[in-house]
Write a structure and sequence with these properties.
Layout (H helix, E strand, L loop, with lengths): L2 E5 L2 E4 L4 E8 L7 E7 L6 E7 L5 E3 L7 E6 L4 E6 L8 E8 L13 E6 L1
Parallel strand pairs: 2-10
Antiparallel strand pairs: 1-3, 3-8, 4-5, 4-9, 5-6, 7-8, 9-10
Length: 119
């Protein structure tokens, strides 16, 4: 059974930076791309960014463009989310999930990692 594990969350002041990691292990269900999502208190889960394993094609939510960068290390089966210029509204639990094709749903949600940005 494949697994995804997020790490790197924490408490940071507004304007600060954090780097999240998501490492895949076991049978892969994320052979096409891996995505980052977040859920803020009282809100629905929302898309943040995604990256394909082959070619490193990236897509970002408008709310994080220019501030967040998603990258991958294929050898380590790890995807990173570098978050700069953090804002209090970025406070959320961040999750990663993967999918095997561009049109299938994301699977293998990890436990999430808490990011808290203080004003």
């Amino acid at each position: 059974q494949g697994q995804l594990a997020e790490s790197g969350g924490g408490l940071v002041q507004a304007g600060g930076s954090l780097r999240l990691s998501c490492t895949a292990s076991g049978r892969t269900f994320s052979s096409y791309e891996l995505g980052w999502f977040r859920r803020a208190p009282g809100k629905e889960r929302e898309f943040v960014a995604r990256i394909t394993w082959s070619g490193g094609v990236t897509v970002y939510a408008d709310s994080v463009k220019g501030r967040f960068t998603v990258s991958r290390d294929n050898a380590r089966k790890t995807v990173y989310l570098q978050m700069n210029s953090l804002k209090p509204e970025d406070t959320a639990v961040y999750y990663c999930a993967g999918r095997n094709t561009p049109t299938t749903q994301f699977l293998g949600w990890g436990q999430g990692t808490q990011v808290t940005v203080s004003s």
